[in-house]
Input
Amino acid sequence: MNTEPTYGLYRDHHQNYKGYQIPKAQLIIADIPYNIGKDAYASNPAWYKDGEHSNGESELAGKEFFDTDKDFRPAEFMHFCSTMLRREPKDAKQAPCMIVFCAFEQQFQLIELGKRYTSSTSEHSAQWLRGSSTPASSGSHL
Output
């Protein structure tokens, strides 16, 4: 049996996962969309030509990062994760885990969805980390 860990980074919509033939995972780390839509680049220098406000807006101004930025569905995402995470094992150090970065306002909904989509024998824990107060990174993370 291969004991080497495997890993992968996929920058695609979670609904496209079947095309990648991804095996079940012990750990899923996600930075979910904040549903900011066409303002996605607002705090990013890419919003402006050459990164400078004085140069005016770039072609990215008023655009979304991904098509899900305006209509991300947390319940669909949690269902996807529940199918992709390994089942709760009997062996030590093999339990599945999710780390989800989210907007402060999303954290409570994600906790409830996590309870709905995980095994009834699983323990649920959440640790709140205080984010900075800058517009681009305000809020806490789950």
